[in-house]
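Dear colleague,

Following up on yesterday's call, I've attached the two folding results inline so they're easy to grep. Please treat them as preliminary; we haven't cross-checked anything against experimental data yet. The first protein's sequence and structure tokens come first.
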Amino acid sequence: MSIEVSQINKMELAEKLESYLSGKVGHEAIKSYAWSLSDESPKEPTANEKVFWSSVFSIIHLADDEHWEDGCTQRDLGELLIQLKGGNI
């Protein structure tokens, strides 16, 4: 069963992602949070949900020491954070 992504879901994810990118939350904590959401992902997200689900699965892939050290994590998740908050890239 998938969850319907609301503005509240997006803002909650944005807050957690912001905490992660600022170093307040570690790799495992943010990855665990993303995994908990991933079980509820739809087979086909709506246009409104695409940034949310892209963020969830990007966190799972990029939240580790290797990607953090090469800068991919900060760059890619930083761009998704802007989109989650409603900004443009």
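Below is the second protein, in the same order (sequence, then structure):
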Amino acid sequence: MGSSKNPSFASMAALLFGFCVALLFPELAASRTRHYTFNIEYHNVTRLCHKRSILSVNKKFPGPRLVAREGDRVLVKVVNHIANNVSIHWHGIRQLTTGWADGPAYVTQCPIQTNQSYTYNFTITGQRGTLLWHAHISWLRVTIYGPIIILPKQNESYPFQKPNKEVPIIFGEWFNADPEAVISQALQTGAGPNVSDAYTINGLPGPLYNCSAKDTFRLKVKPGKTYLLRLINAALNDELFFSIANHTLTVVEADALYVKPFDTDKILIGPGQTTNVLLKARSNFPNATYLMTARPYFTGQGTFDNSTTAGILQYSHPSHPHSPLKTLPLFKPTLPPINATNFVANFTKRFRSLANSKFPANVPQKVDKKFFFTIGLGTNPCPSNTSCQGPNNNTKFTASVNNVSFALPSIALLQAYYLGQSNGVYTTDFPTNPTTPFNYTGTPPNNTNVSNGTKTVVLGFNTSLEVVLQATSILGAESHPLHLHGYNFFVVGQGFGNYDPNKDPR
């Protein structure tokens, strides 16, 4: 009889402890663990009358949605059924203490080999909105990508009008050729890679391409309703303009962070960037349909895909929901010119942190270290006994930061660091300032060669950095977005020309 009381007391104690934990840490009670399985496999797809076997996740193109709430733990088992090694990057997720789950091959992990699996384990911390996931080795991300949808915590609302429906819209690219063959040829010859054959909206090129009218994304809306469009640019390298004819978009979030809302009829979205916008449908059936279109913003030299992808905004008639659309007029949006730099600069300046009591913008007031990074294209010499198609037909195009082009190691950097085996894998002498200053946006230097190496900078935890990113015109000016893995940063100034610390915004 005495022994029977102990389990009862233990159960009550455990129950009381659990209740106290829930009271002290309510976010633990509200969060949950979400499990996903991603099977990387071959998948036959036809676009532009070209049928080919693509690489996909769970035979979906684009891939499946990953949905979680802020505070949730996410476990994704990735199983590799293809001949290529693969890794998955959770683009924009703040990897706080889970850097090994970030995904770039040979940086935070070795890639997943054929017939092997790996489980990614991370927690959504301080983020809500839209991000994306994609393969992060070679060019597998051309078809291996999908949306990450982060909902607010349970019982928390958006800081803007609640939409009637939420719709992911993912911009991508379609190659009639095998993308791996395209990038392999470019790396071998040193020339720029062949461009894609089409841009896509949710995997569909749309009616402006030949043999593509049936492969058109349709956004069906009801009069008077509000829609949250989760815009994602999964294209390889291109910034894209986007607009919906005769409709206004309200920007409310970018890269899983709320922003001060602003209205616009056209947006710019960089590769890897996400932007949430509210679309308010017209109050009455308009007796019309509307194109939504996207095409690139481009200021560099060389060839690029100068085509336009389109989808259709289609209203449901309240009395005749199945009425034919061919008889309705079709309105087309007007996008900025290909090289509309003024529009891009003005549009970008409109993004501001929400910066209220609930979502403050805690910009560091003390800077521990200052970095100055020059970014651009240079050259590498052509290897002996080979022919190259870079500048002067005897060099290869090579991207660099502070004149250093990154060379992939043979094992993951994080693994080598953790095991104390950095010798021969990487060095810690990456230059935090240009080794040879020059007129970055003026006359190009005579020597355009860059060095190659696996160089890193090791920083202490909680270091506050000021990083100046300086574009260059070594082989011609270009617009080049940059993405920081695993964490967010604050944009505190921007401008044209060479950065002047005494005059430019701080």
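For the second protein, one point worth flagging: The chain has a mean pLDDT of 92.

Best wishes,
A.L.
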